[in-house]
Design goal:
By secondary structure, this protein is α/β, with parallel strands linked by helices. The chain folds into two domains: about 140 residues, Aspartate Aminotransferase, domain 1, CATH 3.90.1150.10; about 250 residues, Type I PLP-dependent aspartate aminotransferase-like (Major domain) (Aspartate Aminotransferase, domain 2, 3-Layer(aba) Sandwich), CATH 3.40.640.10. It contains twelve helices and 17 strands. The strands form five sheets. Strands 2-10-9-8-7-3-6 form a seven-stranded mixed β-sheet, sandwiched between helices. It has a four-stranded antiparallel β-sheet with strand order 13-14-17-16. Strands 1-15 form a two-stranded parallel ribbon. β4 and β5 form a beta hairpin. α4 runs parallel beside α5. The longest helix has 27 residues. The radius of gyration is 21 Å and the shape is globular. The N and C termini lie far apart (about 60 Å). About 45% of the residues are buried. The structure holds D-malate. D-malate (MLT) binds next to loops. It is an enzyme of class 2 (transferase). Pathway: Amino-acid biosynthesis; L-lysine biosynthesis via DAP pathway; LL-2,6-diaminopimelate from (S)-tetrahydrodipicolinate (aminotransferase route): step 1/1. Keywords: Aminotransferase, Pyridoxal phosphate, Transferase.
Length: about 400
Amino acid sequence: MITINEHYLKLQASYLFSDIAKRVTSFQEKNPDRNIIRLGIGDVTKGLPAACVEAFHKAVDEMAQDGTFRGYGPEQGYGFLREAIAANDFQSRGADIAADEIFVSDGAKCDTGNFQELFSTATKVAIPDPVYPVYLDTNVMAGRTGKYENGRYGGIVYLDSNRENNFVPELPKEPVDLIYLCFPNNPTGSTISKDQLKQWVDYAREHKSLILFDAAYEAFIRDESLPKSIYEIDGAREVAIEFRSFSKNAGFTGTRCAYTVVPKECRAYDSQGKEHDLHFLWNRRHCTKFNGVSYPVQRAAEAVYSEEGKKQVQALAAYYMRNADLIRKEIESLGYSYVGGENCPYIWIDGGKDSWQFFDMLLDKAGVVCTPGAGFGTCGQGYIRLSAFNSHENVQEAMERIRSVLG
Ligand code: MLT
């Protein structure tokens, strides 16, 4: 008899963004004439940068000819992309990361979800609340939690992010082994200073724990004093894994390319306390379960680092951040308190009522989709998240409609 992994039964019925998509589809079916503006899921709307498109086309043409065709590539990614990443995203900022510490993949969602596979079920996991649901759900699937009760899973150390701590969680009061951090933050849009991040790195070093640092939104940082990578912090190479993505900076949500940095100094321990090399283990996992990102996509990603590509991705970030500025201005003038939107394309708004009620009200009255904060954790209750990823015209229209409903 085939039996299931019963940890799956602890999960909430559906993944947050699938749940929202279902509600929006059902609303649209009942109201076919309503024009809905989506400021919910952080999905980009602008076309790929011209430099990426050109490189993409060229690589597809290479694939068409026997002489330049490529079959299976290196599972970790082609050297041309890994070298461009190491030089531009890290070495140029004084972060000591080498090309062979980079693992190219098809998305940060998969990487942040998969990395926990390397650790024992006894691992004590600390997860912010609110949080990108993938970190939590994948630990539930792996059996690292108890039951779901009153909005929380037993066994997880929740790191509350709220107005009191300016949406940057405090260090855990009990020892933890695995820590998830995301800055600029999804969903709150908050940022962390170098000094604050140093405290986490020091904590991890002291407790022999590991930080999984999601930096998918670093391209939107405008404040030069903020860290773009955890490796800008001394000592992080020994205790931190970093996840990056081309989805938000270069519009690759549908094209798929991302990468994970696993420095060679990172260690984890077996039940006898013996050290093991995480770079070796992740490489082993990656080569066994993944066959690499397609050659044309990697060439398109490499073009992000060309002179033209750099200008084009900066222009994309500036485009979406102009939307974020507009959303902040409007929300502020409506008298709501919010965080985010300054160095991140998400604005986290205190709606003063149940998040799902607020979601339904905005959809029904304004035809605008937001993300209910409660979907990201109990600390998100009462909040909604607006995403700046849409056309400027749509964001303007959405904010006019929101003003007419809330104003
Ligand atoms: C979000 O809206 O939180 C993100 O777009 C989800 C993701 O990147 O998977």
